[in-house]
Amino acid sequence: MSPQQNRGQSKLFGALFIPALLIGAFIVIAILVMSFTGSERATPRPGDGPTTVDAGVMNQLRNQYDKLAEAKGNPNAPVTIREFGDYQCPACGAFEPTAERIRKEYVDTGKVRFLFYDFPLPMHQHAQAAAVAARCAAAQNDFWPFHNRLYQTQGQWSEQNDPTSMFLDLAVETGLDTNKLKACMNKETPLAQINAERDAGQAVSLRATPTVMVGDTLFVGGPSYDKLKTAIDEALAAAGNNGQ
Length: 244
Prior knowledge:
single chain; 10 helices; globular
C-alpha cells in the first residue's frame, strides 16, 4: 500500500471514529438517565413534599377505598393518617418506629385515626406474601401486633427463599391460630383486597413507599417525627369537626 493510500485511510478512520465515539457517549448517558429515572419511582425521597391531594381524590378515598385499609383509632376522629406501605421496603421499615410513636401519642388517645394501605412493590419478592399474612392475621382480629412484628423482623424474613415458616413463628409470638393463618395464606384469601388497594395508591399518584398522608397533605417517603407531628397538630387545629 502506498503512503498516499495509507494517509487517505487514516483520514477516513479519523473522520468516522470521532462521530462514532460521540454517539457511543450519548448512548451511555441516555442509558444512565433512563436508569435513574426508572428507579426514582421505587425509591422514596424522605421528606419529599408535602403536596395537597385534591378534593375529588379525597372523596374517593373516604367513600371507596378507606374501607379496604386496616384501621386503628376513633372512626370519628377529626384527622385521618393514611400510610401506603410495603413490608419488605427498607424505607417503610425505617419509618415504622415513627408510625408506632404517632399511633401511641395520637391514635391511642383518640385524636387521630390511622389507616394502613398495602402497596407491595413487584421488586420485593416477599412483600405480597407478607401483606397476605398480615391480612390473614387481621381475620383473627390481630392485625397490628403482627404488622409490627413483620417490620421488626424485616431483615430476617426478607432474606429467606420462603418466609412462610417465619410468618408462622410470628403468629405464635402474637398468639394467633397458626393452622388458620397457614390455611389463609395458602389460599391467598386477602389477595383480592390487597390488589384493590393498589387502585387507591394509583388514585393519589403514588410514586414510592412509604407514602404518608395527614388529612389531604401527602408526603412521599417517611416524614420525620417532628414534621409529621407538625402536620398533625396543624390539621387538628384546622379540622374542627370536618376531618379529612
